[in-house]
Amino acid sequence: MPDRDPATGGESKGLEQAVRGGEVERAGSGGSAPAVRRSLLPAPGQGFGVTFAQMFKKVTTEQYPETPKVTKPRYHGRHVLNRHPDGLEKCVGCELCAWACPADAIYVEGGDNTEDARFSPGERYGAVYQINYLRCIFCGLCIEACPTRSLTMSNDFELADDDRQSLIYTKEQLMAPLLPGMEAPPHAMRLGDDEKAYYLREPESGSAAEPVTAERA
Predict the structure, then answer these.
(1) Which positions ≥6 away from 127 have C-beta within 8 Å?
(2) Is 35 assigned a ligand-binding role in the annotation?
(3) CB 163, CB 204: distance < 8 Å
């Protein structure tokens, strides 16, 4: 077995053997036989060979932003606060999304509905809703925690900006747009006499509440 340099543990000697294209002793191999190099090229030549081989392969160039990138259907992009078919908000201000967020990027303040000012079915709604996209890691844990499917993630990924304040999205920016047949809250419940009519019903095909594909203003 070749002698080892006590200062470097034999690394310098192994490097000299690698450059010569000879046998290299594996670190920590003990008394096992050294590995045999199967190439006559020195190690740096082999490494640059991989680089030069890639230089002559066809490069796939995406013409972005002229040609928008098509994302996967379940891509985790910008969040959307969805609505019920009559326009009331699905968010009930429970703050479970904020508790589930590992980056502490969501801030929610719940408010109480009244008969004169109703924003969602039930007792409460999300009065203040903010998502800090400087912190968000798009993990999707918030949408898993949402009990009413109010919070979902769209395919919108163009969130870059040169102003930090503009990357803190407010409720008005996150709310889904009003579609035909919807009425902007506050207003009374249109689907039934209580909130059970909103949650204990058969989902309609092509629901107007989600997914949201319209561009944001």
Answers:
(1) 93, 109, 110, 111
(2) no
(3) no
Determine whether the annotation assigns residue 142 to a binding site. yes
Q: Is 97 annotated as a binding residue?
A: yes
User: Does 91 appear as a known binding residue?
Assistant: yes
Q: What is the pLDDT of residues 84-106, one digit of tens each?
A: 999 999 999 999 999 999 999 99
Q: Is 190 part of any known ligand binding site?
A: no
pLDDT of residue 104: 96
Domain 79-199 top-level CATH class: alpha beta
Q: Give residue limits of the domains in the chain.
A: 11-55, 79-199
Query: Among candidates 108, 84, 80, 105, which has minimal Cα distance to 94?
Result: 108
Which parts of the chain have pLDDT scores under 70? 1-37, 201-217
What φ, ψ does residue 20 adopt, rounded to 5°?
-75, -5
pTM above 0.70, yes or no: no
Distance CA 87, CA 184 (A): 6
Are residues 140 and 153 in contact, defined by beta-carbon separation less than 8 angstroms? yes
Cβ burial 37-66 (10 Å sphere, 16+ → b, else e): beeeeeeeeeeeeeeeeeeeeeeeeeeeee
Residues 6+ apart with CB under 8 A from 94: 110, 124, 147
Per-residue burial over 136-174, b = 16 or more CB atoms within 10 Å of its CB, e = otherwise: bebeeebbebbebebbbbbbbeeeeeeeeeebbbebebb
Q: Does residue 101 have a known ligand-binding role?
A: yes
